[in-house]
Every structure is written in structure tokens, then in C-alpha cells.
Design goal:
- This protein is mainly alpha-helical.
- It is built from 37 helices and two strands.
- The termini are far apart.
- 38% of the residues are buried.
- The N terminus and C terminus are likely disordered.
- InterPro entries: BIR6-like, PPR_rpt, TPR-like_helical_dom_sf.
- Keywords: Repeat.
């Protein structure tokens, strides 16, 4: 009766479709002992691939640029010998989270060096074997076979056979093309035989008793896809005389992936007909098919049934269905799937959790309930959040312009036991001040102030300065002084802020802030900062303020910035300014003769003889009567002026 209802549903919804053979998805298991052992220290290379690598003869095309983590992973493994510790250190420093999707993207990289691909694959198989899938293996044998490594290709195919992985069309085409080119005809035929049985089941015999080369799985799938399900279909299936094994049923369900209704009917029929008792493999195969539907109600009913029958969701199923949910922006379903899998034996990995949280924070609307649910499930399974996870989430927030939500995200993670390291605090402080708004950045400071050390403060100020947010930077420096004391803030933070003011041609703003911090907070800037500020003030003709900076320098024991003032006075300054500078530059009665000589020389070199004489007239007698001063002025007189001066002297 149940089958009859399903037939009626199919008659209403699906007209007959032309038969065709499609590729199916298989269970993802894991490689045999060939790749089970953890990689030694450093990683050995059992065979060298470089000597066989051949470049394509196709016309040059512009290849797509790999994403940052993809390029970083390739760069790390480009070193011929690298230790396990070095790999982990490089991954952490480059913030690379190795996941199933990342490995696939790396193996898909055009013209990837086969040695590099093998090192990556070998390392992952030894350290994170759960993230390798059937697709991963097919990509790897495609690289090996496509570069002429016959022996190594067959070794890996044998590993795949033991794990019930089939050779997929893309890998088959790439390998067979290279084998044909190299004249390895026997290997081509052998590969065809492996490919023909990729769905499981034995080959059928044709009428003449010969081997048709078409698997039982393909024949069953073609019958079902070629017509509306009915008594005729069931009769044909029974007359095939095939043995409905777990592999065959799984393969047929994979072939029917584009038609979930037919897949479900076939699933029910094989058990109702008594030809097969469903196992965990077949349940998971149908779960992957139903997970591709736009509406998930049928999928959820089915996986509840699967668990009630005592079967667990395979990791391959979780990865496949979750990927479909996320692709279709079905965030709530993806979160529920994560919870379902976490309550089973094959729990999602840390990378799975990270990926899901990244998708949640980058979705069109941030659903904090979904985020919190994943956090709670992850924690309940005995996991702990790490800096790598948080940094990945921050990147996602920035990518969608949502950095202002960082405080809320961080609060939930800290509630779950996460304690941000100083390095993460530094990175978040910088990115909040650069990509968020001032209020959120300062809110982060207030929440984390108890654990803030010097570095996060610097990063906060730097982020504000790079974003030209001088108000935020100023407030941050003031808070930093209050928290750490003036003695800790007279260097880089005030340098950054003054530099940012000057870049915006606002030296007066920098002067006012420095004066406030020096007078009220007893800040002691570096000598170089005072000199920079003086030079920028004089460039804008703010002589009075520059002179005040000189007073601050004197009060803190620094010498006057003569190098900045003399060029200004010689080229632009007035006599009154020269007198004011001379009187203010030293606590003594008057500066020494070398200073006056230097200033007079600067006046005369700038062609301002009249101003030089005016200033000389204001100088004390010991300056006017000094022989070196008189010689300097005499040497710059014209011939007529010298004769007149001599006549006067006589």
C-alpha cells in the first residue's frame, strides 16, 4: 500500500525522463595502513614526483588566483622537508584552518606541483584523516595518474577499494588520457574495469555470454530513471536477477540523486520486496539524496527513522548535507544537523563547527540564537574554543562589514569558557578600531581592560589612526594612560597619534593633545616626537606653538630643537621671532657664540642680509663685537660697502 501511494505521487509530479548514466556519491571512509601511520618527523617522501612532472602544452591562460589560506597551505608544504612541529607553527601563524573544503580546493589548484599535493595529502591522512573524502582521493589519484605515476596511482586506488571508494569520472578521464599518451594500454583497460564497477555489484552478461562491461548498478539505475515507477519497473528489476548488495543499493541511490522521490521509492521497495535488508550504508546514501532537496521536512523524518533503527549518520553524510544546507542558506537546518550529528557517534569536527559559525556570522541576518545553539552543542561535547576559531570568525565578520557584532560574538564564546589570549586581544582591538565604530571598540576596551597589556592598547590606537579616527585614538591613549600609567605611554602610542594628526595636516590638534597630556597627565614623549611636532608646526607657520613645544622639551630635560628653528627663522621668521627663540632656548643669560654664527650664516645664505643686520642689532654687545661675527658680516659685504665701512673706521 505504501509503495502504491508513492507511485501515485510520482505519477503526479514526474513525467518519464530519458535514461542517462550519472555519477554517484560514495561513502567516505579512510585510507588503509598505507597512509594510517602519523607522518614521521620530518615528513618522508616515499617517492619523488618532480622528475615526472610535465607542463601542459595548451595555450597560456590566466589561471584563477588561489584564496589566501589555499596559497598559504601550498607555500607551507612547498618545502621539501618540514617537521610536524614546523607545519603546526606555520599553520597557526598564517591562521590556516585545514578543512575538507580547503583540501579539495588545494588539490584542484591548476598545475599544482604533484610533490606538494602528495605531501599535503599524506600529512592530512596521518593527522586529520576524518576530513579526507572520496572526492579527496579522486583528486589525488587524478594528480598522480595525470602526471604519469602509474605505480603510485594503483597503490592509492587499491586503498580506495578497501574503503569502498569508487573512481569518479573526472579522475578516470584524466588518468586514462595520460596512460593512453604513455602507451600504458593494459593499465587503461584495467582502469576501465575499475571504473565500470564503481557503483558496486558484479557485471552483467549479455545474451551471447560476453561481458557487457556495464555494472548491475547502472542497469538498475537506468531502468528506474527511464520510466515512471510502477509494476513494470518492479518486474524488470526482479527479472534482472541481480544480487541487491549494500554497495549496489548505495550506488543506485547515488544515481537517483537528482530524483529524491524515486530514490525513496526504490529504498522502500528493496526492503518491502525482501531482496535487501537496509543497513547503515544504504540509510546514509538516501539521507544524502534527501538532503539535496530544497525542503527539508522529508530529510528530517528520514534521519529520525534512521536513528530509531539503530543506524548512525556517517561523517560523509553530515559533510555532504551540511554543505547543501549552507549553499542554499538553510542556516537553521544546518544548525539542527550539527546538533543531530553531535548527539551521535560520528560527531562533527572542530573544523565543522568553525565553518558553521563562520556561515552564521556572515549570513544576511546574524541569528544569535543559532550561533548560541552551536556554541552550546560544541561545548557540551567536551570541546573548547581556541584562538584559531575566533580569528576565523573575525575574518568572516570583516568580510561582510559586521565587525561591530564582534563584542556580542566574543561575549558568547567567553561565556562558554573561552579566554582570549593577548595576541587575539591585540588583533581584535586593531580590527574593531579599524573596521568597527568608535563606540564598539571602546566597549571592547572596557570589557577587556582588566586583562589588557601593552600590545592590545597599541593595536587599538594603530587601528584608529589607520582609519583616520583621531577622536577614537585620542580617547584610547587617555584610557591607556589611566590604566598603565604615563610612563608606559610616552613612546609608540603618542607617536602614532601625533603622526596621524600630522598626516592630516593638523599639527595644531597634535600640539593641543600633547600639551594636555604633558601638563595634566605628566606624559613624557620622546625627544624625536617633540622634534617632529616642532617641524610640522613651523611648516604651517605656528611659531608660537612650536616655541611652547620647546618649553615643554626644556622642562623635561631635552635640548632645544635648533635644527628645526634655524631654517624657519632664516627663511620665513621675523626679527621678533628670532629674539623670542634666542631668549627661550636656554636658561642661561644668552646662547653661546656658535649658535649666533650658525643663525647669521643661515640668514645670509638665504639672501636675507637686511634681516640678519636687524637681528644683529638686537643682540648683546658680546655678540656684536665678536671677531667671528664681524668677519662673517664683512665677508658678505659688497666692494663699495667694504670701502665705505673702512672710510668710517678711519
Amino acid at each position: 500500500m505504501r509503495n502504491q501511494c508513492l507511485r501515485l505521487l510520482l505519477l503526479r509530479c514526474h513525467p518519464p525522463s530519458a535514461p542517462h548514466i550519472s555519477q554517484v556519491h560514495h561513502f567516505r571512509s579512510f585510507p588503509s595502513s598505507l597512509l594510517h601511520a602519523p607522518a614521521p618527523h620530518p615528513i618522508p617522501i616515499p617517492f619523488s614526483l618532480t622528475r615526472h612532472f610535465t607542463s601542459s602544452t595548451d595555450p597560456a591562460v590566466e589561471l584563477p588566483k588561489p584564496r589566501a589560506d589555499q596559497a598559504a597551505l601550498i607555500e607551507i608544504f612547498s618545502k621539501p622537508e618540514i617537521s610536524i612541529d614546523a607545519i603546526k607553527s606555520d599553520l597557526d601563524s598564517k591562521n590556516v584552518i585545514v578543512s575538507h573544503d580547503l583540501i579539495l580546493e588545494v588539490l584542484k589548484t591548476p598545475n599544482i606541483d604533484p610533490d606538494v599535493a602528495r605531501r599535503i595529502f599524506y600529512w592530512v591522512s596521518g593527522s586529520q584523516r576524518e576530513i579526507l573524502s572520496c572526492n579527496s582521493y579522486n583528486m589525488m589519484i587524478g594528480i598522480l595518474g595525470g602526471n604519469g605515476f602509474v605505480k603510485e596511482t594503483w597503490e592509492l586506488i587499491n586503498v580506495m577499494k578497501k574503503k569502498r571508494y569508487g573512481v569518479k569520472r573526472g579522475a578516470f578521464d584524466r588518468i586514462s588520457e595520460r596512460f593512453m599518451k604513455d602507451g600504458a594500454i593494459d593499465d587503461v583497460e584495467k582502469l576501465k574495469a575499475v571504473y565500470a564497477t564503481r557503483f558496486g555489484g558484479r557485471k552483467s552478461k549479455d545474451v551471447a555470454g560476453g561481458d557487457s562491461g556495464v555494472s548491475d548498478c547502472v542497469r538498475v539505475g537506468e531502468i528506474i530513471r527511464g520510466q515512471v515507477w510502477g509494476d513494470d519497473v518492479e518486474k524488470e528489476l526482479k527479472e534482472l536477477g541481480v544480487e541487491f548488495s549494500s554497495d549496489l543499493v548505495k550506488g543506485v541511490l547515488g544515481m537517483l540523486g537528482g530524483d529524491p522521490n524515486k530514490a525513496l521509492i526504490f529504498f522502500r521497495w528493496v526492503e518491502d520486496s525482501g531482496v535487501f535488508k537496509h543497513d547503515e550504508h544504504s540509510y546514509n546514501a538516501l539521507a544524502r539524496v534527501l538532503g539535496n532537496e530544497d525542503h527539508s521536512q522529508k530529510f528530517w523524518r528520514f534521519i529520525d527513522e534512521m536513528r530509531s533503527e539503530g543506524h548512525e549518520m556517517a561523517r560523509e553524510t553530515y559533510v555532504s548535507v551540511c554543505k547543501q544546507f549552507l549553499k542554499k542558506k538553510m542556516i537553521e537546518d544546518a544548525v539542527n544537523l550539527f546538533e543531530f550529528a553531535a548527539n551521535g557517534v560520528n560527531k562533527p569536527s572542530v573544523e565543522d563547527c568553525t565553518l558553521l559559525l563562520k556561515k552564521i556570522v556572515a549570513s544576511e541576518e546574524l541569528d544569535m540564537d543559532s550561533f548560541l545553539k552551536v556554541v552550546e552543542v560544541f561545548k557540551a561535547n567536551g570541546n573548547a574554543f581556541t584562538d584559531n576559531i575566533v580569528e576565523a570568525l573575525v575574518k568572516s565578520l570583516i568580510s561582510v562589514g559586521r565587525m561591530n557584532e564582534c563584542n556580542s560574538i566574543l561575549a558568547e564564546l567567553m561565556e562558554a569558557g573561552y579566554v582570549p589570549s593577548g595576541d587575539v586581544q591585540r588583533k581584535i582591538a586593531f580590527k574593531l578600531s579599524k573596521y568597527g565604530d568608535t563606540g564598539k571598540a571602546l566597549e571592547f576596551v572596557d570589557k577587556m581592560m582588566a586583562s589588557f597589556d601593552y600590545s592590545p592598547w597599541i593595536s587599538l590606537v594603530k587601528g584608529f589612526c589607520e582609519e583616520h579616527n583621531l577622536d577614537g585614538a585620542s580617547i584610547s591613549v587617555e584610557k591607556m594612560v589611566k590604566k598603565l600609567g604615563a610612563s608606559s605611554c610616552g613612546g609608540r602610542p603618542i607617536d602614532l597619534l601625533v603622526g596621524a594628526y600630522c598626516q592630516q595636516n593638523r599639527p595644531l590638534g597634535a600640539y593641543k593633545f600633547v600639551k594636555k597630556m604633558v601638563n595634566e597627565k605628566f606624559l613624557r614623549p620622546r625627544h624625536t616626537l617633540y622634534k617632529t611636532l616642532t617641524r610640522r608646526l613651523l611648516a604651517r607657520k605656528h611659531f608660537k606653538e612650536a616655541l611652547d613645544v620647546m618649553c615643554m622639551m626644556k622642562n623635561q630635560g631635552y635640548p632645544a630643537d635648533v635644527d628645526s628653528f634655524i631654517p624657519y627663522l632664516a627663511k620665513k621668521g621675523t626679527t621678533e621671532e628670532a629674539v623670542a627663540f634666542t631668549q627661550g632656548m636656554t636658561s642661561k643669560r644668552s646662547p653661546a657664540i656658535p649658535f649666533f654664527l650658525r643663525l647669521f650664516e643661515a640668514y645670509l645664505s638665504a639672501g636675507r642680509q637686511s634681516q640678519a643686520h636687524d637681528f644683529l642689532a638686537t643682540c648683546p654687545g658680546y655678540v656684536k663685537d665678536h671677531a667671528d661675527v664681524l668677519d662673517l658680516f664683512t665677508s658678505n659685504m659688497s666692494g663699495a660697502a667694504k670701502k665705505k665701512a673702512a672710510d668710517v673706521a678711519v
